[in-house]
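Tutorial handout. Part one gives the primary structure; part two gives the three-dimensional structure as tokens.
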Amino acid sequence: GRIRYAEQPHAGIRVGREWLVQEARGEWLAFLGADDIWYADKTARQLAVIAGEPDLEFLHGHMIRFRDEPTGRVFHPPEPAPLVSASLLRRSAVEKYGGFSGSDDVGEFFDWMVRARERGLRERCMPETVVWRRVHGGNIGVRDREAEQRSYLHTVRAALARRRNAAP
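Part two.
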């Protein structure tokens, strides 16, 4: 009764995230990228932090990037990860700060986070590692580095334009 299965035809990452926000029934949203692996207790640890800080809108943890090579699995040191797979996101924050935008394949969460931070997003990075992030040639950002860079550049340009327009 606590888990509900819903399916949508493939329409891109941004459209999929927007659809999931509409379909979800809970207060908190958690997204897991296809290449990422959550720690088994990720959500429980994050909900414990939120219980002590009820005003949080966005909580993320650390990640460990890894890649498989012919000589074995290579792990990088843990690092802060303000990315969707390492996060819990309050549904009302998505509604308050606007939905996901950007291209359908890259940058939609980064764009949302930048816009939300500009408007006062209440966030925190917990020191624990909560996700392993698999890096390989098939990752969208690796496969199409140019599209990823264009998306991030577009987000930064839009943020600068908003700042210029808000300046006295």
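Part three, for discussion. The first helix runs from residue 13 to 23. The beta strands are 28-29, 36-38, 58-69, 72-75, 79-80, 87-90, 123-134.
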